[in-house]
Design a protein that fits this description.
3 strands, 20% helix, single chain, alpha+beta, globular
Length: 133
């Protein structure tokens, strides 16, 4: 048996640059995409998000559409977060990661991108992301 790779990740959804949404796993299957919150999160990954391949307007529209769908399917979803915000939950009751050394620095999908999704879905009454003080 070999050790697991550092890139041992999965998500329920993937959104391509053209806005096409792919379901990779059922929403009720746990994926590995956000440290400490995998047990209670539905993961949406986007192709790109780098300087060389920025996220697109079509991806933004698809993220908004998918988030609305998910909240309708699972009304108890309370938070909408970007990967870069996962560490804000370290002292939150939802947090389950116990290995202090198991952290990475995330920058996706970017503050402007997630804020645009939040603004477009604000009527869904998201809980605020915990303040990381």
């Amino acid at each position: 048996m070999t050790d697991a790779s550092a890139l041992n990740v999965s998500a329920q959804f993937l959104i391509d640059q053209n806005g096409k949404i792919y379901r990779l796993l059922p929403e009720t299957t746990m994926a590995r995409h956000v440290i400490g919150l995998n047990h209670c999160a539905i993961g949406i990954e986007n192709v790109g998000g780098t300087t060389d391949m920025p996220l697109t307007k079509k991806q933004l529209k698809s993220n908004i559409k998918l988030v609305k769908y998910l909240k309708n399917q699972f009304p108890k979803i309370d938070y909408l977060i970007g990967h870069f915000e996962y560490t804000h939950f370290e002292d939150h009751p939802l947090w389950l990661e116990i290995d202090q050394g198991y952290r990475t620095e995330k920058t996706d999908p970017g503050k402007d991108f997630i804020e645009n999704i939040r603004l477009s879905t604000s009527f869904l009454n998201w809980e605020p992301v915990p303040d990381k003080s």
